[in-house]
Amino acid sequence: MNVLNFIESFFTNSAHWRGYDGIPQRVWEHIQYSVAALSIAAAVGLPIGLVTGHTGRGGNALAFVSAAARALPTFGLLVLMFVWLGLGVLPVMVPLVVLAIPPILITTYEAVRTVDPSPVDAARGMGMSEGKILLQVEVPAALQLILSGLRSAAIQIVSTATIAAYVSLGGVGRYIVDGLYQRNYEKVVGGATLTAVLALLVLVVFWAVGRGAVSPGVRRRRAA
Amino acid sequence: MNGFFDIPSDLQSSYLGLVSTHLQEALIPVFVGFALALPIGLLCVRVRWLYPPVLWITTVLYAIPSLAFFVVLIDYTGLSRLTVMIPLTLYSLVILVPSVVDGVRSVPEETNAAAAAMGIGLVRRYVQVQLPIAVPAIIAGLRVAAASSISLVSVGALIGNQGALGNLLTTAMLYQRPALAVNSVVTTAVLAVLVDALLVLLRKLLTPWQPPSDRKVRRTAARAADAPGATRTSPTAGAARAPEHVS
């Protein structure tokens, strides 16, 4: 039987659309976890990235943080937290947030640091305060790159939240993990499809936010 | 740590056996991905309009979570190592194509013109002139690809014991032995750091013309701040451009 047949029979089965294990409920859970983890990671990563990028200091420390975070195995961290902290949302949130901070932090730092220095100097010459320079000159110019950092963090969170079903989290990963145990390949493939759709949804959302939030002038210059 | 290296017999492998399986499952895809990225990179450099759609496809491919890839492949390749290695090859390819293209594009126009004037053909120019100059960018991509590959092999444990060191994690859950989970995480992290260090060493060997320390590079970069390529040498530059690994 073909994968497409599995997908079709999974999504056309009306039993899969109801109840606590229904598709709407699982997708909603997945979105909740992901948004919560991304918000926490952004609340930590963005301010630090903006300030270090503005002052241009701490590049080596940040490079070290990103290298260390890359070496940490996602799945391993997840299982380790579960084994140590037990059942619950906290052991899952810790790895989700910890692994999402470095991309946000590094990209924000790099984005603000590499803003064209001449408008920044002009703003300083006009007597703008440092805070105003950061928020009104540097952030709008760097917004596209900052968003791309948030996007890779969001994609990482969505896919890690899938694996987190293994340590008892809800979300669409449940279908994959449960399906593998029940030897129900239809469920597995359905879950995989939902996961991929959610990940692509993240791309679409960030693309739309970028279209709306990034100033057209900045966008044109990047494209050129 | 009691029973830290005491691997349960149902894994049918020793500790060192797991390490070597892990390295194979992680690094063969990186090599294959690299071998594929070189011709694709050349094509993207030559045919300029091809690069934006390729970049778009790679972004979408990279967003697909590995677990979704694995389970869909089960239908074709079964519960084998290949099921883990095919997605990892794709991820490596996705990371490496942009680093090859960006690296080759950063080659100064004078250098290309000099090569052309010497009568060096397209392919030879790519291999002997452009790629060596692009080595720092390519190695930066290889570092991200290798680290993410090493981390992702563990997820293979979810599709039936194909995760090498990741199998220790599922075993730790099964037998309530946290020490095995610690062992898996520490060993995987150490492998990632070692491979990363090897790649940095390789870059130093391949680019003897570069200033020895990053610090010095950054100072020269700060002095030549007007040059558009100068920011590339900062220690975080590669990390910001290349996508972080997904799960």
From TrEMBL, chain A:
Gene3D superfamilies: MetI-like. Keywords: Membrane, Transmembrane, Transmembrane helix, Transport. PROSITE patterns: ABC_TM1. GO terms for biological process: glycine betaine transport; transmembrane transport. CDD domains: TM_PBP2 (cd06261). GO terms for cellular component: plasma membrane. It is a multi-pass membrane protein. InterPro entries: ABC_transp_perm/SBD, MetI-like, MetI-like_sf. Residues 27-206 form the ABC transmembrane type-1 domain. Pfam families: BPD_transp_1. It is found in: Cell membrane; Membrane. Belongs to the binding-protein-dependent transport system permease family. This is ABC transporter permease. It comes from Streptomyces sporangiiformans.
UniProtKB/TrEMBL annotation, chain B:
Residues 212-247 are annotated as: Disordered. GO terms for cellular component: plasma membrane. CDD domains: TM_PBP2 (cd06261). Belongs to the binding-protein-dependent transport system permease family. SUPFAM superfamilies: MetI-like. It comes from the Bacteria. It is found in: Cell membrane; Membrane. PANTHER family: GLYCINE BETAINE/L-PROLINE TRANSPORT SYSTEM PERMEASE PROTEIN PROW, OSMOPROTECTANT IMPORT PERMEASE PROTEIN OSMW. It comes from Streptomyces sporangiiformans. Residues 222-233 have a biased composition (Low complexity). Keywords: Membrane, Transmembrane, Transmembrane helix, Transport. This is ABC transporter permease subunit. It is a multi-pass membrane protein. Residues 19-203 form the ABC transmembrane type-1 domain. Its main location: membrane. Pfam families: BPD_transp_1 (PF00528). The chain crosses the membrane at residues 26-47, 54-76, 82-101, 179-202. The lineage of its organism: Bacteria, Bacillati, Actinomycetota, Actinomycetes, Kitasatosporales. One of its GO terms (biological process) is transmembrane transport.
